[in-house]
């Protein structure tokens, strides 16, 4: 039994509902969120974000204004490691040949994305590489100081020198690279926001978009890519798959996880002012701060081998092992490896199922969570025989009167 006292606080009803929707998406409870906030207050000895009236200071008025607090900005400034990029992107050689690649939300000279594509330009047979940075980025201009380094700029590469691009000290030979006639380095007119007309035009021209976009804008980012029907390989948090805007893309086979990264944490470089006392934060031998982040996945819409690899099913269905939900015509399968090989009906499986999902083997029907009643069409709810339960908080599966975790409702494809 918990010894922690229960605290009652008054919260505006609408505010609570909207906040709960966000927590549901992230997969944490309201209580965990409040505790996290209070711990940050204690850790930082003050409010963990600035409270002030936002007034634009520079010519670049960023459109992240509503999200522009210390929490979210810090989350947006994670820099991907070269090895993680190299392992994933090397699996897409067939898709990349002859293509024009755009790395937006990037810092061409600080990020490993630009470095990877520039160094492997010939080997991958690329037609063009464009990388843009955002004026709000805290790394821009640090590694390779540029004139007016805080302004957004764009690097374009259509050819690379015959000599190796990487110099003895590990830096890129940018002088030789940009001395080539087909290459250019230019300031952007605006702030490099991926939603700006200027950046959308670059998106339109590109074939495949590869980046690690800002965490706080992931929904909007992936929405833009699918709207423009672009190929993409982008990094995000696995929980993003459960967002109301993103889950239907998984369900309808427009998006899936990439080839690599299925477990554990990944190291990301963070800006020099990132608090070292933050959980999982450290410093490498070169004095660069990093943070280890769990639950990272590549999201792509380019076909990959892994997605056609069926999950080995070793269990047999026995009614006593697989209870039925009270509010869905489906059985509860609490762990992915327990999916029975011989059950033809609907099954509720954990979100981690997406790590193993092959559309050749299963179809995804819906996400049964606290938002199902509002997010899922009446036709789909009817097809899974959903009936509202007093305890289901909008659609969470109920067994013996108790809510289970969020589940994906799936069905085996019959041959
Ligand atoms: C998670 S970091 C990743 C950086 C780089 N792609 C990498 O992985 O090394 C996200 C980047 O997006 C930038 N950013 C934040 N808001 C943006 C916006 N609205 N438009 C474009 N870029 C943005 C941040 O400054 C940051 O450089």
> Could you name the CATH topology of the largest domain?
Rossmann fold
CATH top level of the largest domain is Alpha Beta
Ligand roster: S-adenosylmethionine
Strand order of the largest sheet: 5-4-3-2-6-7-12-8
* Overall geometric form: globular
Biggest β-sheet: count, sense, barrel? Answer: 8 strands, mixed
- Distance from first to last alpha carbon: 49 Å
User: What structural class should be given to the helix and strand makeup?
Assistant: alpha+beta
The quaternary structure here is single chain
Overall pLDDT score: 88
Total of DSSP H or I helical runs spanning 4+ residues:
13
Estimate the strand proportion. 15-25%
Helix content: 10-25%
How many structural units, i.e. domains? 3
What is the compact description of this entry?
The protein is α+β, with helices and mostly antiparallel strands and 415 residues long.
């Amino acid at each position: 039994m918990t010894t922690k006292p229960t605290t009652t606080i008054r919260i505006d009803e609408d505010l609570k509902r909207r906040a709960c929707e966000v927590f549901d998406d992230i997969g944490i409870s309201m209580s965990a969120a409040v505790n996290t906030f209070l711990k940050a207050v204690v850790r930082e000895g003050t409010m963990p974000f600035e409270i002030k009236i936002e007034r634009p200071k520079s010519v670049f008025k960023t459109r992240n204004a509503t999200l522009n607090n210390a929490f979210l900005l810090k989350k947006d400034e994670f820099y991907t490691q070269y090895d993680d990029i190299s392992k994933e992107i090397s699996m897409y050689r067939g898709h990349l040949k002859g293509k024009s690649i755009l790395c937006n939300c990037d810092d061409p000279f600080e990020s490993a994305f630009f470095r990877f594509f520039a160094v492997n330009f010939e080997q991958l047979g690329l037609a063009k590489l464009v990388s843009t940075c955002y004026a709000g980025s805290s790394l821009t201009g640090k590694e390779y100081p540029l004139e007016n380094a805080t302004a957004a700029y764009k690097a374009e590469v259509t050819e690379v020198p015959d000599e190796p691009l990487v110099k003895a000290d590990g830096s890129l030979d940018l002088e030789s690279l940009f001395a080539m006639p087909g290459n250019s380095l230019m300031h952007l007119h605006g702030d490099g926001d991926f939603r700006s007309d200027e950046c959308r035009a670059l998106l339109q021209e590109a074939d495949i978009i590869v980046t690690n976009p800002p965490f706080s804008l992931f929904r909007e980012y992936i929405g833009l890519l699918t709207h423009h029907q672009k190929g993409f390989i982008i990094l995000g948090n696995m929980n993003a798959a459960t967002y109301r805007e993103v889950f239907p893309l998984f369900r309808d086979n427009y998006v899936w996880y990439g080839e690599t990264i299925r477990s554990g944490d990944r190291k990301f470089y963070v800006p020099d002012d990132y608090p070292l006392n933050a959980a999982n934060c450290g410093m490498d031998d070169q004095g660069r701060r990093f943070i280890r982040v769990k639950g990272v996945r590549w999201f792509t819409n380019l076909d990959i081998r892994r997605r056609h690899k069926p999950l080995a099913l070793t269990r047999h269905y026995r009614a006593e092992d697989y209870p039925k939900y009270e509010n869905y015509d489906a059985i509860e399968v609490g762990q992915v490896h327990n999916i029975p090989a011989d059950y033809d009906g609907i099954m509720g499986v954990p979100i981690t199922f997406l790590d193993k999902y092959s559309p050749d083997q299963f179809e995804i029907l819906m996400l049964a969570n606290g938002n199902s009643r509002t997010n899922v069409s009446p036709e789909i709810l009817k097809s899974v025989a959903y009936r509202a339960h007093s305890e289901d908080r909008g659609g969470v599966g109920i067994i013996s009167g108790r809510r289970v975790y969020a589940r994906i409702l799936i069905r085996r494809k019959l041959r």
